[in-house]
Specification:
alpha+beta; Hist_DNA-bd; two-stranded antiparallel ribbon; HU Protein, Chain A; elongated; three-stranded antiparallel sheet; 90 residues
Length: 90
C-alpha cells in the first residue's frame, strides 16, 4: 500500500475528503517523526512500537575493492509489531 492508497483508505473509512485525510495522515507521520527525533518511543496499542536504537560503529568491507572501511555509529528508527498486528498477519 502506498501513501496515496493509505490516504484514500482513511478517507473512505473515516468519511473524510481525500484532502482532509491527507492532512490527518501527514500529521500522524509528522508526530511520529518528531517524537523519534527527540528520542521518544511511540507506542500504538494493538499496532506496535516505534523507537530509536543506537547502532555501534563497526568495520565493513567495500564490495568493489574488498578494502576495510569504518562505518560510524548511528541512531536508527525501528519498529516492533504488537501482538494484535502479528496475529492479524498470521
Amino acid at each position: 500500500m502506498t501513501k496515496t492508497q493509505l490516504v484514500a483508505a482513511v478517507a473512505q473509512s473515516a468519511g473524510l475528503t481525500k484532502a482532509e485525510a491527507q492532512r490527518v495522515v501527514e500529521a500522524v507521520f509528522a508526530s511520529v517523526r518528531d517524537a523519534l527525533a527527540r528520542g521518544d518511543r511511540v507506542t500504538i496499542t494493538g499496532f506496535g512500537t516505534f523507537e530509536v536504537r543506537n547502532r555501534k560503529a563497526r568495520t565493513g568491507r567495500n564490495p568493489q575493492t574488498g578494502e576495510a572501511i569504518q562505518i560510524p555509529a548511528q541512531r536508527i528508527a525501528a519498529f516492533r509489531a504488537g501482538k494484535s498486528l502479528k496475529d492479524a498477519v498470521r
